[in-house]
Amino acid sequence: MCFLMTSKITIGNYTNIKPSAVKWKCSVSNFTDTCSISLPLKTYIRNNGTVITNYSSGSTEQAITSLSDDKRTVFKEGDKVEVLLGYDGNNTRRFKGFIKRINYAKPLVLECEGYNYQLKDKIFNKSYKSITVRQILTDLIVSTDIQLSDAIPHIPLKNVVFKNCPGLKVLEWFQKECLLSVYFDFNSLYVGASKYGIKKPRQKLRLGWNTVDDNELKKDTVESNVIIHVVEKSSTGTVKRTKSDQKKYSTTKDVKARSGMPDAVLKEIANNLQKTENFSGYKGEINCFLEPHFDNGYVAEIIDKRFPDRNGSYFVESVDGSFDSGGGRQKITLRYYGTVDGK
Hints:
single chain; mainly beta; Phage tail protein beta-alpha-beta fold; Elongation Factor Tu (Ef-tu), domain 3; 4 helices; 22 strands; about 10% helix
């Protein structure tokens, strides 16, 4: 059976754009989604305000350089981008964001970023005596097209001050100071104690059948006697430790967190860090086709007839995709976590 690769790409006011290649990447560990779109150079450049589709003579480079940067192509930095890819017209969304940079080369390359792009030039000045994570984010995304995920939990904070803080540094503050997971689900922003906070679809992968390569899915066994302590130090010097639920241990690993966060949130953070510390099981990369569709946060239900030990549920940490003349591929980074929600 033969499948025809198809696409539906919108950039700015232009629809049904046909690329020569697309690459995209998203991850639950990074709030910056990226995408590069390669296009035929002569199809999307201008000459004296007219879109050039064919050259009868002369230099393509000369036609480009005779115009200022913001008029060389029918596109411009900041244009909205949506990329849907698939087979036989069954296209699914792979990326949603904005043009960050235009690379004038052969082919023309549009370098794009996700919705974090709308925060990069924002300066945030707010002080809160008592606030929640969601309310801070609500204030942060004013005048953007960013939406907040329904999965953001209720996390109260106290005595929070942002002074001349770039928007992206606010997201980094949640990551580094509060030890929270921060990532985008296209234009929806999630911040929470666990990277597993958004419940996404499950997709089945039968290794060797609807996959290209699974050689990097390998077993990792860790014998850890370490217990995680999330440590808070208040302005008065008081130190508070929140332990994970690890029962047996011989050493302690301290991880600093901002003071004043709820005990339940700190406990969840400690246990999630403990799971990473104690991880034993299969993890790594699988290279598969464009179907079934995967995004970060999906669950891959793996079936392996050759090595049944690899069967089970895997969390999709990241997706690194490509779409070009060589075919469509999704390189998904997986971590085994057994059963979730009783499945």
